[in-house]
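Journal club prep — side note

Before the paper discussion, L.F. wants everyone to see what a predicted structure for a comparable chain looks like in C-alpha coordinate form. Sequence:
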Amino acid sequence: MTQSLPGQHPTPERVFTGRGRLPVVVVGAGPYGLSVAAHLRAAGVPVLVFGEVMGSWRHAMATGMFLKSTPAATDLSAPEPGARLADFRRRQGEPELTELTPIPCDVFVRYGQWFQKQYVGDVDPARVVSLDRDGTTAGFAVRLSDGRELAAAAVVVATGLNGLAHVPEELRRLAPEGPGPDAPVSHTSHHTDLSCYAGQRVAVIGGGQSALESAALLHEAGAEARVLVRESRVRWGTTPVLTRPWPQRLARPASPLGTGWVLATVCAAPYAVRRLPASARLLLFRRALGPSGGWWLRDRVEGVVPVHTSCRVTRAEVASGGAVRLELAGPGTTAPAQFHTVDHVLAATGYRLDLDALPFLAPTLRQALVCVPGSGAPELSGTFESSVPGLYFTGSLAAPMFGPMMRFVAGTGFAATRIAAHAGHRSRAAR
Protein backbone atom coordinates (compact mmCIF):
# COMPACT_ATOMS: atom_id res chain seq x y z
CA MET A 1 0.00 0.00 0.00
CA THR A 2 1.15 3.51 -0.69
CA GLN A 3 2.87 4.84 2.40
CA SER A 4 1.57 7.90 4.18
CA LEU A 5 3.87 10.39 5.84
CA PRO A 6 4.33 10.24 9.61
CA GLY A 7 2.74 13.14 11.44
CA GLN A 8 4.49 16.41 12.22
CA HIS A 9 8.00 16.09 10.82
CA PRO A 10 10.62 18.71 11.80
CA THR A 11 10.93 19.85 8.15
CA PRO A 12 13.48 17.33 6.81
CA GLU A 13 15.46 18.02 3.66
CA ARG A 14 13.83 15.08 1.90
CA VAL A 15 11.49 12.18 2.52
CA PHE A 16 12.24 8.84 0.87
CA THR A 17 9.66 6.19 0.08
CA GLY A 18 10.51 2.60 -0.78
CA ARG A 19 14.17 1.46 -1.04
CA GLY A 20 15.52 5.02 -0.83
CA ARG A 21 13.73 6.27 -3.93
CA LEU A 22 12.24 9.72 -4.13
CA PRO A 23 8.46 9.55 -4.61
CA VAL A 24 6.27 10.99 -7.30
CA VAL A 25 3.95 13.53 -5.71
CA VAL A 26 0.41 13.87 -7.05
CA VAL A 27 -1.32 17.16 -6.18
CA GLY A 28 -5.04 16.51 -6.16
CA ALA A 29 -7.18 13.46 -5.37
CA GLY A 30 -9.95 13.76 -7.93
CA PRO A 31 -10.50 11.42 -10.91
CA TYR A 32 -7.25 12.34 -12.67
CA GLY A 33 -5.05 12.34 -9.58
CA LEU A 34 -6.43 9.01 -8.38
CA SER A 35 -6.05 7.42 -11.83
CA VAL A 36 -2.42 8.54 -12.19
CA ALA A 37 -1.67 7.29 -8.66
CA ALA A 38 -3.29 3.91 -9.39
CA HIS A 39 -1.05 3.39 -12.42
CA LEU A 40 2.08 4.48 -10.54
CA ARG A 41 1.31 2.22 -7.61
CA ALA A 42 0.68 -0.79 -9.86
CA ALA A 43 4.07 -0.19 -11.48
CA GLY A 44 5.79 -0.24 -8.09
CA VAL A 45 6.58 3.48 -8.16
CA PRO A 46 6.49 5.23 -4.76
CA VAL A 47 3.72 7.79 -4.89
CA LEU A 48 2.31 10.30 -2.41
CA VAL A 49 -1.11 11.82 -3.08
CA PHE A 50 -2.17 15.06 -1.38
CA GLY A 51 -5.66 16.53 -1.23
CA GLU A 52 -9.17 15.56 -0.24
CA VAL A 53 -10.48 12.52 -2.07
CA MET A 54 -13.06 13.73 -4.62
CA GLY A 55 -12.94 17.11 -2.88
CA SER A 56 -14.27 19.25 -5.74
CA TRP A 57 -17.08 16.82 -6.42
CA ARG A 58 -18.05 16.99 -2.76
CA HIS A 59 -17.74 20.73 -2.19
CA ALA A 60 -18.24 22.45 -5.56
CA MET A 61 -21.43 20.70 -6.66
CA ALA A 62 -24.85 21.48 -5.25
CA THR A 63 -26.82 18.72 -3.57
CA GLY A 64 -29.12 17.04 -6.06
CA MET A 65 -26.93 17.52 -9.13
CA PHE A 66 -26.29 14.83 -11.72
CA LEU A 67 -23.38 14.19 -14.05
CA LYS A 68 -23.88 15.17 -17.65
CA SER A 69 -21.58 12.34 -18.77
CA THR A 70 -22.90 8.88 -19.57
CA PRO A 71 -21.81 5.85 -17.48
CA ALA A 72 -19.46 4.68 -20.24
CA ALA A 73 -17.62 8.01 -20.06
CA THR A 74 -17.31 8.10 -16.28
CA ASP A 75 -14.80 5.34 -15.50
CA LEU A 76 -11.63 6.11 -13.60
CA SER A 77 -8.53 4.37 -14.92
CA ALA A 78 -6.63 1.51 -13.31
CA PRO A 79 -4.16 -0.84 -15.06
CA GLU A 80 -6.19 -3.90 -14.13
CA PRO A 81 -9.81 -4.93 -14.75
CA GLY A 82 -12.58 -4.40 -12.24
CA ALA A 83 -12.24 -0.64 -11.68
CA ARG A 84 -15.15 0.64 -13.76
CA LEU A 85 -18.23 2.40 -12.41
CA ALA A 86 -20.23 -0.68 -13.44
CA ASP A 87 -17.88 -2.88 -11.38
CA PHE A 88 -18.37 -0.65 -8.34
CA ARG A 89 -22.16 -0.76 -8.73
CA ARG A 90 -22.13 -4.53 -9.07
CA ARG A 91 -19.95 -5.00 -5.98
CA GLN A 92 -22.26 -2.73 -4.00
CA GLY A 93 -25.28 -4.71 -5.11
CA GLU A 94 -26.63 -1.73 -7.05
CA PRO A 95 -28.18 -1.91 -10.54
CA GLU A 96 -26.01 -1.05 -13.52
CA LEU A 97 -26.57 2.40 -15.01
CA THR A 98 -27.33 2.95 -18.68
CA GLU A 99 -27.23 6.01 -20.94
CA LEU A 100 -30.86 6.55 -19.98
CA THR A 101 -29.93 6.80 -16.28
CA PRO A 102 -28.38 10.13 -15.22
CA ILE A 103 -25.65 9.58 -12.63
CA PRO A 104 -26.18 11.35 -9.29
CA CYS A 105 -23.04 13.19 -8.16
CA ASP A 106 -23.12 11.43 -4.80
CA VAL A 107 -22.92 8.06 -6.61
CA PHE A 108 -19.84 9.25 -8.48
CA VAL A 109 -18.26 10.49 -5.23
CA ARG A 110 -18.81 7.09 -3.60
CA TYR A 111 -17.30 5.43 -6.66
CA GLY A 112 -14.20 7.65 -6.44
CA GLN A 113 -13.77 6.90 -2.74
CA TRP A 114 -14.10 3.16 -3.42
CA PHE A 115 -11.57 3.40 -6.26
CA GLN A 116 -9.09 5.15 -3.94
CA LYS A 117 -9.32 2.40 -1.34
CA GLN A 118 -9.04 -0.37 -3.91
CA TYR A 119 -6.32 0.96 -6.22
CA VAL A 120 -4.50 3.89 -4.61
CA GLY A 121 -4.21 3.39 -0.86
CA ASP A 122 -3.51 6.20 1.56
CA VAL A 123 -4.20 9.78 0.51
CA ASP A 124 -2.84 12.58 2.70
CA PRO A 125 -5.44 15.34 3.17
CA ALA A 126 -2.77 18.03 3.63
CA ARG A 127 -2.67 20.74 0.99
CA VAL A 128 0.44 21.51 -1.05
CA VAL A 129 1.17 25.17 -0.33
CA SER A 130 4.53 25.51 -2.08
CA LEU A 131 6.18 23.76 -5.00
CA ASP A 132 9.62 24.68 -6.29
CA ARG A 133 12.64 23.05 -7.81
CA ASP A 134 14.92 21.41 -5.27
CA GLY A 135 18.42 22.85 -5.35
CA THR A 136 19.94 19.67 -3.88
CA THR A 137 18.31 17.14 -6.21
CA ALA A 138 17.09 17.05 -9.78
CA GLY A 139 13.54 17.04 -8.45
CA PHE A 140 11.23 19.28 -6.44
CA ALA A 141 10.79 20.68 -2.95
CA VAL A 142 7.22 20.36 -1.69
CA ARG A 143 5.87 22.14 1.39
CA LEU A 144 2.56 21.15 2.96
CA SER A 145 -0.10 23.07 4.86
CA ASP A 146 0.92 21.44 8.15
CA GLY A 147 4.53 22.57 7.79
CA ARG A 148 6.03 19.33 6.51
CA GLU A 149 8.51 19.45 3.66
CA LEU A 150 9.61 16.71 1.31
CA ALA A 151 11.54 16.11 -1.86
CA ALA A 152 9.96 14.56 -4.95
CA ALA A 153 11.41 13.07 -8.10
CA ALA A 154 8.44 14.34 -10.10
CA VAL A 155 5.18 16.15 -9.47
CA VAL A 156 1.82 15.66 -11.18
CA VAL A 157 -0.61 18.59 -10.90
CA ALA A 158 -4.14 17.17 -10.99
CA THR A 159 -6.03 19.94 -9.20
CA GLY A 160 -8.98 19.97 -11.59
CA LEU A 161 -10.83 23.27 -11.72
CA ASN A 162 -9.96 24.33 -8.17
CA GLY A 163 -9.35 28.07 -8.08
CA LEU A 164 -10.24 28.53 -11.77
CA ALA A 165 -13.86 29.68 -11.41
CA HIS A 166 -14.54 32.65 -13.68
CA VAL A 167 -16.84 35.51 -12.71
CA PRO A 168 -17.06 38.35 -15.29
CA GLU A 169 -15.58 41.64 -14.14
CA GLU A 170 -18.92 43.46 -14.19
CA LEU A 171 -20.31 40.98 -11.67
CA ARG A 172 -17.11 40.63 -9.67
CA ARG A 173 -17.33 44.31 -8.76
CA LEU A 174 -20.43 43.52 -6.71
CA ALA A 175 -18.32 41.60 -4.20
CA PRO A 176 -14.83 43.16 -4.07
CA GLU A 177 -14.06 41.22 -0.89
CA GLY A 178 -14.72 37.94 -2.65
CA PRO A 179 -17.43 35.29 -2.17
CA GLY A 180 -19.16 34.99 1.16
CA PRO A 181 -22.52 33.96 2.66
CA ASP A 182 -23.91 37.48 2.31
CA ALA A 183 -22.20 38.47 -0.96
CA PRO A 184 -24.61 39.62 -3.69
CA VAL A 185 -22.87 37.42 -6.30
CA SER A 186 -21.40 33.94 -6.20
CA HIS A 187 -20.19 31.26 -8.60
CA THR A 188 -21.95 27.92 -8.89
CA SER A 189 -18.79 26.18 -7.61
CA HIS A 190 -19.17 28.01 -4.27
CA HIS A 191 -22.29 26.05 -3.30
CA THR A 192 -23.18 22.63 -2.01
CA ASP A 193 -26.76 23.59 -1.09
CA LEU A 194 -28.92 26.06 -3.02
CA SER A 195 -31.88 25.80 -0.66
CA CYS A 196 -30.49 28.78 1.28
CA TYR A 197 -32.01 30.98 -1.47
CA ALA A 198 -35.58 29.78 -0.86
CA GLY A 199 -37.97 32.73 -1.18
CA GLN A 200 -35.37 34.94 -2.90
CA ARG A 201 -35.11 36.26 -6.44
CA VAL A 202 -32.02 34.78 -8.11
CA ALA A 203 -30.62 35.55 -11.56
CA VAL A 204 -28.56 32.70 -12.99
CA ILE A 205 -26.05 33.88 -15.60
CA GLY A 206 -25.14 31.31 -18.26
CA GLY A 207 -26.64 28.84 -20.70
CA GLY A 208 -24.82 25.59 -19.98
CA GLN A 209 -25.51 22.58 -17.80
CA SER A 210 -24.40 24.26 -14.59
CA ALA A 211 -26.70 27.25 -15.14
CA LEU A 212 -29.74 25.24 -16.18
CA GLU A 213 -29.44 22.61 -13.45
CA SER A 214 -28.80 25.27 -10.79
CA ALA A 215 -31.92 27.12 -11.95
CA ALA A 216 -33.97 23.93 -11.67
CA LEU A 217 -32.64 23.24 -8.18
CA LEU A 218 -33.31 26.83 -7.10
CA HIS A 219 -36.89 26.65 -8.37
CA GLU A 220 -37.46 23.31 -6.67
CA ALA A 221 -36.08 24.74 -3.41
CA GLY A 222 -38.60 27.59 -3.49
CA ALA A 223 -36.53 30.38 -5.02
CA GLU A 224 -37.75 32.67 -7.78
CA ALA A 225 -35.09 31.85 -10.37
CA ARG A 226 -34.56 33.20 -13.87
CA VAL A 227 -31.81 32.35 -16.38
CA LEU A 228 -30.02 34.98 -18.47
CA VAL A 229 -28.35 33.55 -21.59
CA ARG A 230 -26.11 35.34 -24.10
CA GLU A 231 -26.91 32.96 -26.96
CA SER A 232 -30.05 33.23 -29.07
CA ARG A 233 -31.35 29.88 -27.78
CA VAL A 234 -30.70 27.20 -25.21
CA ARG A 235 -29.26 23.97 -26.58
CA TRP A 236 -30.35 20.63 -25.18
CA GLY A 237 -28.88 17.19 -25.55
CA THR A 238 -30.90 14.55 -27.35
CA THR A 239 -32.32 11.51 -25.61
CA PRO A 240 -29.89 8.60 -26.17
CA VAL A 241 -30.92 5.74 -28.39
CA LEU A 242 -29.40 2.53 -27.05
CA THR A 243 -29.57 0.68 -30.38
CA ARG A 244 -28.94 2.61 -33.61
CA PRO A 245 -28.98 1.16 -37.15
CA TRP A 246 -25.58 1.00 -38.81
CA PRO A 247 -26.21 3.90 -41.28
CA GLN A 248 -26.76 6.21 -38.31
CA ARG A 249 -23.71 4.83 -36.53
CA LEU A 250 -21.65 5.44 -39.65
CA ALA A 251 -22.97 8.96 -40.24
CA ARG A 252 -22.62 9.98 -36.59
CA PRO A 253 -20.31 7.63 -34.70
CA ALA A 254 -20.57 7.49 -30.93
CA SER A 255 -17.88 8.74 -28.55
CA PRO A 256 -17.57 9.39 -24.80
CA LEU A 257 -18.49 13.04 -25.46
CA GLY A 258 -21.40 12.51 -27.84
CA THR A 259 -22.07 11.57 -31.45
CA GLY A 260 -20.40 12.95 -34.58
CA TRP A 261 -17.11 12.56 -36.42
CA VAL A 262 -15.38 15.52 -34.77
CA LEU A 263 -16.03 14.29 -31.25
CA ALA A 264 -15.25 10.69 -32.19
CA THR A 265 -11.93 11.75 -33.72
CA VAL A 266 -10.72 13.91 -30.83
CA CYS A 267 -11.64 11.16 -28.36
CA ALA A 268 -9.96 8.41 -30.36
CA ALA A 269 -6.76 10.36 -31.02
CA PRO A 270 -5.90 13.02 -28.41
CA TYR A 271 -2.25 12.61 -29.39
CA ALA A 272 -3.12 13.80 -32.90
CA VAL A 273 -4.87 16.89 -31.47
CA ARG A 274 -1.57 17.84 -29.83
CA ARG A 275 0.11 17.98 -33.25
CA LEU A 276 -2.30 20.60 -34.56
CA PRO A 277 -1.26 24.27 -34.62
CA ALA A 278 -1.99 26.06 -31.34
CA SER A 279 -4.68 28.21 -32.96
CA ALA A 280 -6.52 25.13 -34.26
CA ARG A 281 -6.27 23.40 -30.89
CA LEU A 282 -7.69 26.39 -29.07
CA LEU A 283 -10.54 26.67 -31.55
CA LEU A 284 -11.31 23.00 -31.02
CA PHE A 285 -11.06 23.41 -27.25
CA ARG A 286 -13.50 26.34 -27.22
CA ARG A 287 -16.03 25.23 -29.81
CA ALA A 288 -16.10 21.44 -30.01
CA LEU A 289 -18.56 21.33 -27.14
CA GLY A 290 -20.72 24.41 -26.72
CA PRO A 291 -22.94 25.15 -23.72
CA SER A 292 -25.94 22.85 -23.51
CA GLY A 293 -28.21 21.14 -21.03
CA GLY A 294 -28.65 17.44 -20.45
CA TRP A 295 -31.64 15.87 -22.18
CA TRP A 296 -33.00 14.65 -18.84
CA LEU A 297 -33.04 18.20 -17.43
CA ARG A 298 -35.19 19.82 -20.09
CA ASP A 299 -38.57 19.08 -18.49
CA ARG A 300 -37.41 20.69 -15.24
CA VAL A 301 -36.55 24.00 -16.95
CA GLU A 302 -38.57 24.64 -20.11
CA GLY A 303 -41.89 26.21 -19.23
CA VAL A 304 -40.94 26.08 -15.54
CA VAL A 305 -38.10 28.57 -15.07
CA PRO A 306 -38.08 31.86 -17.04
CA VAL A 307 -35.19 31.85 -19.53
CA HIS A 308 -34.15 35.09 -21.25
CA THR A 309 -31.97 34.59 -24.34
CA SER A 310 -29.90 37.03 -26.43
CA CYS A 311 -29.02 39.19 -23.44
CA ARG A 312 -25.87 40.04 -21.56
CA VAL A 313 -25.18 41.93 -18.38
CA THR A 314 -23.74 45.36 -19.16
CA ARG A 315 -24.03 46.82 -15.69
CA ALA A 316 -24.64 45.52 -12.19
CA GLU A 317 -25.00 47.50 -8.99
CA VAL A 318 -26.17 46.93 -5.45
CA ALA A 319 -29.39 48.87 -4.89
CA SER A 320 -31.08 49.90 -1.68
CA GLY A 321 -31.82 47.10 0.74
CA GLY A 322 -29.03 44.93 -0.69
CA ALA A 323 -30.86 43.99 -3.89
CA VAL A 324 -28.94 43.81 -7.18
CA ARG A 325 -30.02 45.81 -10.20
CA LEU A 326 -28.92 44.30 -13.53
CA GLU A 327 -28.86 46.17 -16.82
CA LEU A 328 -29.12 43.82 -19.80
CA ALA A 329 -28.26 44.58 -23.40
CA GLY A 330 -30.15 42.88 -26.21
CA PRO A 331 -28.69 41.35 -29.38
CA GLY A 332 -28.46 44.61 -31.35
CA THR A 333 -27.02 48.03 -30.60
CA THR A 334 -30.45 49.65 -30.97
CA ALA A 335 -32.34 47.21 -28.74
CA PRO A 336 -33.55 48.93 -25.57
CA ALA A 337 -31.88 47.90 -22.33
CA GLN A 338 -33.76 45.68 -19.92
CA PHE A 339 -33.54 45.87 -16.15
CA HIS A 340 -33.96 43.16 -13.55
CA THR A 341 -33.79 43.52 -9.79
CA VAL A 342 -32.88 40.38 -7.85
CA ASP A 343 -31.67 39.41 -4.40
CA HIS A 344 -28.70 37.40 -5.64
CA VAL A 345 -26.74 36.74 -8.82
CA LEU A 346 -25.45 33.19 -9.40
CA ALA A 347 -22.69 33.12 -12.01
CA ALA A 348 -22.65 29.86 -13.97
CA THR A 349 -19.98 31.40 -16.17
CA GLY A 350 -17.54 28.53 -16.29
CA TYR A 351 -13.84 28.39 -15.62
CA ARG A 352 -10.76 30.07 -17.03
CA LEU A 353 -7.52 28.09 -17.33
CA ASP A 354 -4.74 30.11 -15.74
CA LEU A 355 -1.52 28.86 -14.15
CA ASP A 356 -1.34 32.11 -12.17
CA ALA A 357 -4.40 30.88 -10.25
CA LEU A 358 -2.39 27.98 -8.78
CA PRO A 359 -1.02 29.63 -5.62
CA PHE A 360 1.38 26.82 -4.71
CA LEU A 361 3.59 27.31 -7.77
CA ALA A 362 6.73 29.21 -6.75
CA PRO A 363 7.25 32.39 -8.84
CA THR A 364 10.48 31.07 -10.38
CA LEU A 365 8.74 27.82 -11.33
CA ARG A 366 5.77 29.67 -12.80
CA GLN A 367 8.05 31.86 -14.89
CA ALA A 368 9.78 28.78 -16.31
CA LEU A 369 6.49 27.31 -17.55
CA VAL A 370 5.75 27.91 -21.23
CA CYS A 371 2.04 28.43 -21.96
CA VAL A 372 -0.05 27.60 -25.00
CA PRO A 373 -0.27 30.83 -27.07
CA GLY A 374 -3.55 32.56 -26.32
CA SER A 375 -4.14 30.48 -23.21
CA GLY A 376 -3.09 30.34 -19.57
CA ALA A 377 -2.59 26.57 -19.83
CA PRO A 378 0.86 24.94 -20.06
CA GLU A 379 2.55 23.59 -23.16
CA LEU A 380 2.90 19.84 -22.66
CA SER A 381 4.85 17.02 -24.26
CA GLY A 382 3.24 13.81 -25.45
CA THR A 383 3.70 12.47 -21.91
CA PHE A 384 1.99 15.52 -20.32
CA GLU A 385 5.34 16.89 -19.13
CA SER A 386 5.62 20.68 -19.04
CA SER A 387 8.59 22.82 -20.03
CA VAL A 388 9.90 22.18 -16.49
CA PRO A 389 11.30 18.62 -16.57
CA GLY A 390 9.52 16.34 -14.13
CA LEU A 391 6.47 18.59 -13.72
CA TYR A 392 3.28 17.21 -15.28
CA PHE A 393 -0.22 18.65 -15.70
CA THR A 394 -3.38 16.69 -16.38
CA GLY A 395 -7.14 17.15 -16.51
CA SER A 396 -8.62 20.43 -17.72
CA LEU A 397 -5.25 22.20 -17.77
CA ALA A 398 -4.18 19.71 -20.45
CA ALA A 399 -7.26 20.24 -22.64
CA PRO A 400 -5.74 23.03 -24.82
CA MET A 401 -3.01 20.53 -25.76
CA PHE A 402 -4.89 17.23 -26.07
CA GLY A 403 -8.45 18.30 -26.80
CA PRO A 404 -11.80 18.50 -25.01
CA MET A 405 -11.73 14.91 -23.73
CA MET A 406 -9.32 16.08 -21.01
CA ARG A 407 -12.14 18.18 -19.56
CA PHE A 408 -14.04 15.01 -18.70
CA VAL A 409 -13.43 11.84 -16.71
CA ALA A 410 -13.24 9.97 -20.02
CA GLY A 411 -9.67 11.25 -20.49
CA THR A 412 -8.22 9.65 -17.35
CA GLY A 413 -7.01 6.48 -19.06
CA PHE A 414 -5.16 8.28 -21.85
CA ALA A 415 -3.48 10.67 -19.43
CA ALA A 416 -2.71 8.27 -16.58
CA THR A 417 -0.93 5.64 -18.68
CA ARG A 418 1.39 8.18 -20.30
CA ILE A 419 2.15 10.18 -17.17
CA ALA A 420 2.77 7.10 -15.01
CA ALA A 421 5.19 5.56 -17.51
CA HIS A 422 7.27 8.73 -17.86
CA ALA A 423 7.15 9.92 -14.23
CA GLY A 424 7.87 6.40 -13.03
CA HIS A 425 11.07 6.39 -15.05
CA ARG A 426 12.11 9.64 -13.36
CA SER A 427 11.46 8.15 -9.94
CA ARG A 428 13.56 5.08 -10.73
CA ALA A 429 16.40 7.31 -11.91
CA ALA A 430 16.27 9.62 -8.86
CA ARG A 431 18.19 8.35 -5.84
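L.F.'s comment for the group: The longest strand covers residues 312-318. Keep this in mind when we get to the figures.
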